Amino acid sequence: MASKLLQLQSKAAQASQLVAKHGCTYYKQLLEKNHQYIQNPPSIEKCNELSKQLFYTRLASLPARYESFWKELDSVKQLWKNKGDLKVEDAGIAALFGIELFAWFCVGEIVGRGFTITGYHV
């Protein structure tokens, strides 16, 4: 256990050295690359305005998303009605999608329990 702690400390020290060495350069490059998105002068009022624009833009997109959801649901209903015409490939894709959803659920449960498999904290 102590050796793993030392390894972890060593890796953390290496990572912090890497960030200290290249962090400023990366930060400057990131800002230069995305300068068109930066509002000058930066102010609280501008930030509040932009957050309101984002919120109300997302709110305005809800009817289109709602309509798209019902179209998708109708297409699934049509597939279910015509399940006799379903190809093996389509069924395989649906099964893989279901397995992937279940796997993400399991990962979420493990993360929610603090990265323990059984739920017991040691």
From TrEMBL:
Q: What is any Pfam family matched here? A: ATP-synt_G
Q: Name one GO cellular component term.
A: proton-transporting ATP synthase complex
Top-level division of the source organism's lineage: Eukaryota
On whether Membrane is a keyword of this UniProt record, the answer is yes
Extract one GO BP annotation from the record: proton motive force-driven ATP synthesis
Query: Chief subcellular site?
Result: mitochondrion
What are the record keywords, sorted?
ATP synthesis, CF(0), Hydrogen ion transport, Ion transport, Membrane, Mitochondrion, Transport
Q: Where in or outside the cell?
A: Mitochondrion membrane
| A molecular-function term among this protein's GO annotations | proton transmembrane transporter activity
The family note in this entry says: Belongs to the ATPase g subunit family.
Q: State what protein this is by name.
A: Uncharacterized protein
Q: What is the lineage of its organism?
A: Eukaryota, Viridiplantae, Streptophyta, Embryophyta, Tracheophyta
